[in-house]
Amino acid sequence: MYKPATIKDIALALKLSPSTVSRALRDGYEISAATKKIVAEYAKSVNYKSNPNALSLKNKRSYSIGIVVPELANSFFSQAIAGIESIAYEKGYHTIITQTHDSSERELINVNHLANRSVDGLLISMSSGTADYAFLQKLHQDGLPIVFFDRIIAEIDTFKVTSDNFNASYEATLSLIAAGCTKIAVLANAPQLSITNERFAGYQKALVENDIPFRPELIRNCLKGGSDNQEVEEAVKELLSGMDKPDAIFITSDRISISCIRALKKLKFDPQKIRVLGFSNSDVVDLLQPGLSYVRQKAFEMGEIAVSMLLKLIESKYPITEFETRKLSTELYSLTPPL
Prior knowledge:
alpha/beta, SBP_2_dom, Rossmann fold, transcription, elongated, six-stranded mixed β-sheet, transcription regulation, DNA binding
């Protein structure tokens, strides 16, 4: 009968102590790189598999990570989750993924459910409906490791990773101005979100530097983040029904970008009269009609960085008191011919 190899078997074969083998397999800092390599190669040759239940009992960990995102169908978040899982599974952690649909009530329920299941840590991108962060602050104070990605908040001092939203929007708006646009409307997410404020600030800077007056009547916030197509369609309809119509629409959200294109197509607008630029990580964005210039974020890399930050919090033997907020560059794909 087949009997799987154990840490004791590996230790006996390599003339090492079981504790040394165990620490080497867990990438312990006190074990040399040469020893780790020898142990890893031998463990692979005998098809050694760790026992997550035994590890969990010994270390009082569940080896699971909770992930809370607004929406799984969103290309950006699906790519970020792929990045998270690529690192998590390699390190022996499982993921439990939940979505809030941009509802504060559902976010609260999901976070509490994950905490009650004793996840070792939480990765979260905030819901557009949440303005009170007390429930997260309480969990953080109780010692649950939390890392924010994409939609971050200032109220909790921990590791965070997001895009360089200010510069992304600044460069995107400049590209519209370079194409001859001077009446640039904005479709944005909920105003309390970090990404909304940072992207709006970049848009405003580009206007100021080019002596283009800011026009509040050209700004629309879609509080449901694009999940309600009717909300986006009404916003687009309002922008296009005025006497002085915009010559461009800048969209500061991935999901709203797709909903805006759908609304423009339904309204049968003339693509020669208005330029559209939005954030989008869709793999088929180049096929959209009407065409969409877009800002693409490094979603997969953001997921990798976020989970690496979380594992640092989970596995540190000492309290971490200094944190960083990483900002990743973006790429602009512009349909630049003047109107």
